[in-house]
Amino acid sequence: MKDLIKRLVTLQQVDTRILEKRAFIDRVPGRINEVDEPLKAARAELELVRQRNDASAKKKKEKERLLEDINDKIKKAKGRISDLKTNKEYQAHLKEIEASEREIRSIEDQILAIMEEMEKSLQNQKQIEGRVKSEEDKLNAFRRGLEEEVAQYEKELEGLKAERGGLAASVDRDAYNAYMALLATGSGLAVTSARNEICTGCNMNMPPQLFVELRKGEELIQCPQCRRILYYSEEQ
Ligand SMILES: [Zn+2]
User: Fold this and answer.
1) Domain locations in the chain?
2) How much distance in Å is there from the Cα of 190 to the middle of ligand 1?
């Protein structure tokens, strides 16, 4: 019996290590997602600034086209001067040209304002591009580190699985099945120590007489509360 208990304790130790390594590997995608957040935010910001700059460039082009149209209009109007008959017609014509020239100055001011805004915005875009790049580098380094750890853990898991196979085969079938059922219901802990009449699995007191039996190590004893298989621990 003492031998069986010892094997179950070793099996539990191996399973605990297997579960820890699997839990680490399972957490990796979530951890990458968390670290991914600043990069996602920087990329979204960059996209917004790029869209804004594209819109400004488009607006500038429209204003420039408008400017060309008005210049054409003035040129044509000036070409018509010789057709004018009266002084009144001539005065009206001059007013029209002046109005168009005023319009040109106003549009030129608008273009200048757009260009100033774009210059600032392009500087901002460059800054954000730098941030995206540095966040990408950070994330890649983090991912590489995790991948190395995962590869190491997977290698260790192979070894542990082989070790487990040998252990499992050496344990009596009924005890093994009971162990596996407890592993499932006990959050990965089927075998645990009892110290000072307390089960370390559930931290509940056990009857003194049962603790005495446990110390003897002559039979498989389960915690009356959590049903986990117990082994005696001398540590205080
Ligand atoms: Zn217990």
Assistant:
1) 33-170, 176-232
2) 10
